[in-house]
Amino acid sequence: MKSADTEYRVLVIDDNPDIHEDFRKVLCQERYASSQLEAMENTIFGAPPENPNKQRRFQVDSAHQGHEGLAKLYHALQEGEPYAMAFVDVRMPPGWDGIEVIPRLWVADPNLPIVLCTAYSDYTWEEIFAKLGNTDHLFILKKPWERIELLQLAHTLAERYRRRSG
Q: How many whole angstroms separate alpha carbon 19 and alpha carbon 77?
């Protein structure tokens, strides 16, 4: 079973490089800053007991188009290091949009939780539902998202992944 210290792999598929940096700032930066301090504290005081409420650790992998994201997903599965979740943008010209790539991601990994991120209303809920179906593996996150929304989704989906792969 994975512990709270496990690093969960996250795939971000978005055509905007700044968005990838935003994901890293929220999901990775605090971990790196605190890990050095934690290492020093552990050296001086010894390792603390396992804290089940400890924040999860994330590794963010980037893809700037849908086909690149699909290739990264297949590669991760072949390596035996699957993604715990994916964050997928709706608009990614000139390639597949998020609605087009998500079914392909689910062919590769039917249990992959996907957060569909959008700042636009290109698709109504009914259109998304018609194209992607009724699933508990799809979540919607409106841009601009709040830090707390992203952290809550990532931690919840990491816990789901831990239980599923445990």
A: 24
> Has this prediction a pTM greater than 0.70?
yes
Provide the residue-wise pLDDT of the chain in tens; the chain has 166 residues.
455 567 999 999 999 999 999 999 999 965 444 556 665 666 676 655 554 556 789 999 999 999 999 999 999 999 999 999 999 999 999 999 999 999 999 999 999 999 999 887 778 888 998 999 999 999 999 999 999 999 999 999 999 998 988 7
CATH classification at residue 148: 3.40.50.2300
Q: Domain of 48?
A: 7-165
Task: Confirm whether 140 is domain-assigned.
Answer: yes
